[in-house]
Amino acid sequence: MALLTRDQINSAVDRKWEDVPVPEWGEGAQVRLMELTAADRGYIEAGSVVAQGQAPQLKVESLKVYRQKLVAFGLVDEKFERLYSNKEMGELDKKSGAVIERLAAKIQELSGMGRFAVKEAEGNSDAAPSGSSASG
Fold this sequence. Notes:
Blueprint: H1 6-11, E1 17-21, E2 30-34, H2 38-52, H3 56-74, E3 75-76, H4 97-111, H5 115-124
Antiparallel strand pairs: 1-2, 2-3
Helix pairs in contact: 2-3, 3-4
InterPro entries: TAC_Gp13-like_sf
Protein name: Tail assembly chaperone
């Protein structure tokens, strides 16, 4: 198999998505959730890491909006464009905590984050690397 070029990598569609029912938001209601980009995931994770070494109030604020950030970054329309900008994600604070938690968990699953990262790693543990060598 030939090695990929930068253009081939950049044009590859590699993010998973799923349409998820949200009956709390109306009969037959669904939303589309998409795996986070590397940049979005880094932004969300950086907020958690920074808060760990800070005052309790900053930790609280970071944790308070963690799920809303996940949902704001992963909730997309039929063209896979975000529904909520960074400035608008506060609107999700007013929604049901149970719904936001469920959607955030699905985005984590799609993105291989949190407890889902462990499951993904366990699933890949059988695969041995091929064609590479530690010695050069």
